[in-house]
Amino acid sequence: MRIPRFFVAPESIDLLNQQANLSEQALINQISNVLRLREGDLVDVLDNQGQIYRCRLKTKPAGKKSAESSWFATIESSMKATGEPARPLEIALPMLRPNRYEWALEKLTELGATSIVPLLVQHSVTRDGKLSRWQNIVKEAAEQCERAFVPEIYSPIPIEAYLKRLTTDEPDSTIFICAERAEAMTLPAVLCNQNILAPHKISVIVGAEGGFTEDELKMAEELGVVPVTLGSRILRAETAAIYALSLIVSYLEQNNKLSGTT
Length: 262
Ligand code: SAM
Description:
Layout: E1 5-7, E2 13-14, E3 19-21, H1 25-34, E4 42-46, E5 51-60, E6 70-80, E7 89-94, H2 98-111, E8 115-120, H3 131-144, E9 152-153, E10 157-158, H4 159-169, E11 174-178, E12 185-186, H5 187-191, E13 202-205, H6 214-222, E14 226-229, H7 237-258
Parallel strand pairs: 1-4, 7-8, 7-13, 8-9, 8-10, 11-13, 11-14, 12-14
Antiparallel strand pairs: 2-3, 3-6, 4-5, 5-6
Helix pairs in contact: 2-3, 2-7
The protein binds S-adenosylmethionine (SAM).
């Protein structure tokens, strides 16, 4: 049977006493009511810093500090957590209608995005979204798909500020902008071009349902962002983000295999 996994704050791991504190309310609910685990069950606890602890569940009886009983776990072994892409992969995706955006966040997490940026563009359909809800969605997706880290979700940011930040602060990264209807190279062709691919992070910017404005595309181009096409069909924004990330992850995994690094 698959061993349940939980991310906890790094300070919840007490290496001195070889214990993991699981007394956060959402975690108690997940353990007691959703998964219906019992004392003695094995769980994998991740510190979101790359370490995974195989633990045995113990109940903490109700006491003076808390009226309810809660959980902790004793650490039996630890190892390096796996499941991360070979380099940081960021997706900047304008906010969409909530159900579609949340679906996209889950799939992007499963595919290996290391950070997600809710972008504000001229044609954004909505500017509202709940960061805490999004963080919860990516945390659960990261647990389910056996990632070592929970992807970071930033606060929504206008595309102009995002482009300036990326191009100034992260010179080692490659930035792609998915430009439908443009005379651009296809993403797979660009990935194979070593002159274009910088050694570190890869960021992909996707437009809203209404696409990018001429000014947004022009600004990206002036800052050295690489325009790419995803083929001859016009994809919905979330499909474009998921397809672009799939192509990049598959390229990186294939290349790592060929170079023998995995
Ligand atoms: N309203 C736009 C139009 O009709 O031209 C379509 C926008 S599309 C629904 C949403 C975003 O997905 C685009 O801005 C782009 O970033 C990305 N996208 C969709 N299809 C694409 C393609 N074939 N190549 C590159 N990007 C694409």
